Amino acid sequence: MASNTKARRFATFSEEDLKEIVNNSEAENTKKLTRIDVNVFREYLLSKQISAEFESLSCEELDRLLGRFYVELRNNKGEMYKKTTLLSYRQGIQRFLQSIRPDVDIIKGPLFRDSNKFFKGMTMELKRQGQANIDHHPPISDADLIKMYDYLSSSDSAQVLQHKVFVDIMMHFGRRGRENLRTLRRTDFSVSTDGEGCMYVEKIRDEKTKNHQDDSCKAEGRMYEIKAAACGTKG
C-alpha cells in the first residue's frame, strides 16, 4: 500500500531556534567586541551613580545619557579615543539593543537626534585634533619576504614546513590573515592546470570571515607551482 505520508515543504522552528540562528550570524570577535562596548557603557553609568541596566530605559532618557557618554568617554589614561573607537562603541551598543529591542535605533532613529548631534560634534572635534586617522599595519617589504621564505625553505622540519604552508595560504588565498587557517582541510583545495600547462592550487570552498559574513564574494587566487628546489619539500 502506498504511504499517505507526505514530506512537509516547510519546517517549524521555535523562538529559541530562531534566536540561535540570528546569534550564529555574528562572528565571535563581533560578539566579544559588543560585550566590551556594552560593559564600558555600563561602567560609565555606574560612575555617574546611574543604574547600569540601560536596556530598560525610555528612549528619551537613553538619548540623553548616550549624548553625555559620547562627549565624556575617555581611555584609561584620561585621553580621548580615536574616531574609529568612538564609532565602535556606538555600533556595539546598537547591536546589543537591537538584539533585545529591535524597534530601538540609536544611530538612525528620530528619537536619538540629540545624542547623534553630540556624536557628530565629537567626531568633528576628534578630526580637528588629528584623532580621525586610521592606523593600518605597514605592508611586508620585498626584502623581508625574501628573508622569510629563505628561512621557511631552509629546513625539512615538519613545524617549519607547516609554517610555510600557512604563509603560502595567507599570501595567496587569505582575506583576513590567520583567520580560519586551522579549520581548512585538504578537500578545501584542488590542483588544476592552466592553458599553458602550468599546475596551480586553487581554493574551492569559501568560508565565513569577520568582514564576509553573508556575501557571495568567493575568495579567489591561484598558487602556481615553482619549478625549482625552493619549495621546502623533496619528492
Strand arrangement within the widest β-sheet reads 1-2-3
Structural class: mainly alpha
Radius of gyration (CA) equals: 25 Å
Q: Can you give the mean pLDDT?
A: 82
Distance between the termini: 62 Å
- Assembly state of the chains shown: single chain
The largest sheet, given as strand count, sense and whether it forms a barrel, is: 3 strands, antiparallel
Detail the poorly predicted runs. 210-215, 229-235
| Tally of DSSP β-strands | 3
Shape: extended
Task: Outline the structure in words.
A three-stranded antiparallel β-sheet has the order 1-2-3, with helices on one face. The protein has helices at residues 15-24, 28-47, 59-72, 83-100, 113-128, 142-152, 158-172, and strands spanning 189-193, 199-203, 222-224. The protein is mainly alpha-helical and 235 residues long.
Task: Write a concise keyword list for the protein shown above.
235 residues; mainly alpha; 7 helices; 3 strands
Could you provide a short overview of the structure?
The chain has 235 residues and is mainly α. The protein has helices spanning 15-24, 28-47, 59-72, 83-100, 113-128, 142-152, 158-172, and strands at residues 189-193, 199-203, 222-224. The longest helix is centred in the first third of the chain and has 20 residues, at 28-47.
